[in-house]
């Protein structure tokens, strides 16, 4: 049974998950998770390794479809539309619900082409001038423009790890998504690069619904307004981040945030 704090009524839900179960073959990885993802805020998923938080995150843009043994049950909606409807275009869904992975994964193309690729295939730009504008705007939003504007033809893979991760965020926002999913985006980065990503998340919040999986409770406390605690495939507790960290209602949440396990 999930404990949901009762002071969340001020938020409009962008996505809703109801009674979601995920199986890998016969093994159940997610057990009856229901959550509303708010429109305006950053939502953090926390919990020990292997608790299901990344698996659940991948349900939100159907990345688990790429795993042959995975099976997802339950309902997840985006603006009221069931994202698991067989008639739904998954490519369009992933444009609306972008994803940034744990390890930066720029395409083996130029910095410019990394950003331009999505807008080109989705038909967002008519001509090079529009494409140039999208590339610049996306890189500016990702806090990367000043660092790379004179070397847009260089390979994206030649950037530092932190710059590559901001490039991947710029690539995600270039197709004008509504939701951005981030799966431990700072785990491979040094503290300075991590701080830049956290500043970027703060800048982007309010413009997009953002969901971040993080192993760092300090990071969750810094960047998010809502926090869900996962344990053994279940969502144990969900509420305002300040309440989860200062006044959790579940003993398991209290034990985790005070370092008794995890």
TrEMBL record:
Keywords carried by this UniProt record: ATP-binding, Nucleotide-binding, Phosphate transport, Transport
A Pfam family assignment: ABC_tran
InterPro entries, sorted: AAA+_ATPase, ABC_transporter-like_ATP-bd, ABC_transporter-like_CS, P-loop_NTPase, PstB-like
BP GO terms, sorted: phosphate ion transmembrane transport
One example GO MF annotation: phosphate transmembrane transporter activity
Matching PROSITE patterns: ABC_TRANSPORTER_1 (PS00211), ABC_TRANSPORTER_2 (PS50893)
Domain ABC transporter: 15-257
Any one cellular-component term (Gene Ontology): membrane
Keyword Nucleus (UniProt): no
The UniProt record lists the keyword ATP-binding: yes
NCBIfam families: 3a0107s01c2
Record protein name field: Phosphate ABC transporter ATP-binding protein
Species of origin: Qipengyuania pelagi
């Amino acid at each position: 049974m999930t404990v949901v704090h009762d002071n969340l009524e001020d938020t409009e839900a962008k996505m809703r998950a109801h009674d979601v179960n995920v199986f890998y073959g016969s093994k159940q990885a997610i057990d009856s998770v229901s959550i509303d993802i708010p429109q305006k805020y950053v939502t953090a998923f926390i919990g020990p390794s292997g608790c299901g938080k990344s698996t659940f995150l991948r349900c939100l843009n159907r990345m688990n479809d790429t795993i042959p043994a995975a099976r997802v049950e339950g309902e997840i909606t985006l603006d009221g539309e069931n994202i698991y409807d067989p008639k739904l275009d998954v490519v369009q869904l992933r444009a609306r619900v972008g994803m940034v992975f744990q390890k930066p994964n720029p395409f083996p193309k130029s910095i410019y082409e990394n950003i331009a690729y999505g807008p080109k295939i989705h038909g967002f730009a008519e001509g090079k001038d529009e494409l140039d504008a999208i590339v610049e705007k996306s890189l500016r939003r990702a806090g990367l423009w000043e660092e790379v504007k004179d070397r847009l033809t260089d390979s994206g893979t030649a950037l530092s790890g932190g710059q590559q991760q901001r490039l991947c965020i710029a690539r995600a926002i270039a197709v004008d998504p509504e939701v951005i999913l981030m799966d431990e985006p700072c785990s491979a980065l040094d503290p300075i690069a991590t701080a830049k990503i956290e500043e970027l998340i703060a800048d982007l919040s309010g413009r997009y619904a953002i969901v971040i999986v993080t192993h760092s409770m300090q990071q969750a406390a810094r960047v998010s307004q809502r926090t869900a605690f996962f344990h053994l495939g279940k969502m144990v507790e969900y509420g305002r981040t300040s309440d989860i960290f200062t006044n959790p209602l579940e003993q398991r949440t209290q034990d985790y945030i005070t370092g008794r396990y995890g």
